[in-house]
Amino acid sequence: MHTDPRVDAYIAALPDWQQDICRQVRALVHEADPSVEETIKFTDRPYFVLDGNICALLGTKDHVNVFLYDKAAVPDPHNIITSGHANKTARMISVYRDQPVNAPALVEMFRHIIAANRRRRTVGPRR
């Protein structure tokens, strides 16, 4: 697992319960593929990337947002996506205090996004 100290700093600055959620999501995205890289975009937001964006984290006042950069293509049979259903770039999962993270569903979604990123990379842009 390749971690970025800037992501560590972002997570450490959050309240304890948000740190727990962010650490769980971080571990799950790396479980989906150990080659996932971490970075910071837009000044302070943690992003997880592999051949394109996979997800990003954002701690808010009362929840943590997990942005899925899936081009609205990832199936959601467990109904964990909370908003952005019509968005063509990303959708969002909001996780509140004491709400469990659906780890199996999230890993499945991350793997789907990674596979789609790889397909786009090998196919290249359409002409």
Automatic annotation (TrEMBL):
Gene3D superfamilies annotated for this entry?
3.90.1150.200
YdhG-like domain segment(s): 18-113
Q: Which domain of life is it from?
A: Bacteria
Q: Which InterPro entries match?
A: YdhG-like
Q: Which Pfam families does UniProt cross-reference here?
A: DUF1801 (PF08818)
Please report the name of this protein according to its UniProt entry. Answer: YdhG-like domain-containing protein
Please name the source species: Lentzea guizhouensis
